[in-house]
Amino acid sequence: MYRIGIWFATLEDMLAIKIVLIFLQSSAFKPQLCPFTSDGCSASPNGIPKLQEQAWVDCCVEHDKKYWVGGTKEERLSADKALGLCIFKKGYPKIAELYFKSVRMGGVPYLPTTYRWGYGWNCLRPYGPLTDKEKIEILKMQIAGLDYNGKFEIKTILNPQNYYEANLLVCK
User: Could you tell me the residue range of the domain that residue 68 belongs to?
Assistant: First the structure.
């Protein structure tokens, strides 16, 4: 029995997982950018419940626009600072600090979450500058009107398990 994070697996299980991942990451697999989506402030309040419920949601959506495509560590830090500054300017300094610290901890690109750095890709995209191919994918989304230029709805993913299963691949 082997430990993988918090899970345990037999050697046979690990080999089966590796074979599946190798198959899925073969040359037939093509990293693709999915249309932009935002859930607002990802598992956190969008504002003050019952008072100003959408007080800083626009800050979170702007932050999601940057997280959607991903990029370098420096770009992520810049996006996270911009989120904190946006919330701070709205008059919520403690919330700004809390959200900044939260996205620094939880937004890493290596977790199959709906709010990770580069979550728009159909695979786990590590830190790094966008390639020419990726920039073309983004341009295709913009041309099709599927980017974040007002062509989306804030929505909650109803079945996160399906999302996690679909996003276990690693972009090459």
Answer: 31-166
